[in-house]
Amino acid sequence: MLRKGIWLLFVLLLALPAASLSQSMDLEERLAEERAKLRAAMQAEQSVLKQIYAVEHIQYQHERKLRKISAQLAATRQTIADDKETIARMETELPIRGARLARRLAALYRMGRGGFWKVLMTSESFGAFVRHYRALRKIVEMDAEDLSRHRVEILALRERRGALLRRQAQLSALARQEKEASLAVEIEKRKKMFLLEDIQNNKQIQIRLTQELARQDAALGQTVASLPPSPPPPTPTGPLRLDFAEHRGYLPRPVAGPIVGRFGVRVNDRFGTKTRSNGIDIAAPLGTPVQVVADGVVRYVGEFMGYGRVAIVDHGERYHTLYAHLGQFNVSRGEAVRTRTVIGTVGSSGLYAQPVLHFEIRHQGRAVNPLAWLAASP
């Protein structure tokens, strides 16, 4: 029975595409090497958050490259499809036009110069002669133009075929680049999973992480407190409503989903370590649009260690909302935004393995419990 199972496994392995098997082995080899580096860095007591930040930053770069390549790939595929359609139409039309021209030229050849003179000389009047002459000349000119156009279209068809071959070669190159970029993204995702696994299983790393999170929380608080207030830019739909305090208990949720992280002190069930969160974490599918909860001005857009991609909105009277672990930004610094404006999308960064949005409300730089401000239902 064992021999039969081994033989079946051998047959299945032979059935796998060689390229796919090679790529899988290459991925595992690279992951093993990267995991060894990460563990060495952990043992050297390097910053846990810096390692996560470095992995995520590289992942962002690979994802940006992957999106660009995928867009080029889609555009090239569409161009190839259009070229094939044009070539097919030209290949259908050219023989018909060529046959028609051949018949015209044959008729002109049979008529010869004598035939032309016969038509002209049998005219009943000088006026008819002039009309016949002009008509014959027009026919000859039109036939010459058709012949010239036919030759140009034949050359154009050849050029189209050559361009199609070049684009197909470009498509193959882009497909290879897309596979490489996808592999690079997958490696960074796996590296982060390794880091999170080591963090969950090592108490010393948990203690270091707790200290680092406290420092980053203080740094973020200083960043929010130091944001300079300035008058909001003019908007075509009228002035912004900067009465944030009036909406306590009625603000819309930035994204729908279950709350997986509460405001306040959080205790690690395994090691008993404590961390403080100045906001709430809402789980949502990757790429879900994140909405601004009130009118305001975007004061900060960028990456922040421990929080991933962060956007901060100023709502006036020293009220700010913070949206962290974003996947992509949909706004820029200094931009005026209205309630429910999409500020970005849900990403996957920080200490969560799942996609989440970290949301904070701060007044005069001090964090307040967002649940007291958000409406009871989404």
Number of strands: 12
Distance between the termini: 58 Å
Report the sheet with the most strands, covering strand number, pairing sense and barrel closure.
10 strands, antiparallel
- Classify the fold: give the CATH topology of the largest domain: Helix Hairpins
Strand content: 15-25%
Q: Order of helices and strands, N to C? A: HHHHHEEEEEEEEEEEE
Helical segment tally? 5
Write down the overall geometry: elongated
Please compute the radius of gyration using only Cα atoms: 35 Å
Approximate helicity band: 55-70%
CATH superfamily of the largest domain: Helix Hairpins
Mean pLDDT: 79
Structural class: alpha+beta
How many structural domains does the protein architecture include?
2
Model description:
The chain has helices spanning 2-15, 18-43, 48-121, 126-201, 203-225, and strands at 259-261, 264-267, 274-277, 280-283, 289-291, 296-304, 308-314, 319-329, 336-337, 342-346, 356-363, 366-368. The longest helix has 76 residues, at 126-201. α3 runs antiparallel to α4 (126-201) and α4 (126-201) crosses α5 (203-225). With 378 residues, the protein is α+β, with helices and mostly antiparallel strands. It has five helices and twelve strands. The protein folds into two domains: 16-199, Helix Hairpins (Orthogonal Bundle); 228-372, Glucose Permease (Domain IIA) (Distorted Sandwich), CATH 2.70.70. 56% of the residues lie in helices and 17% in strands. Mean pLDDT is 79; it is low at 1-21.
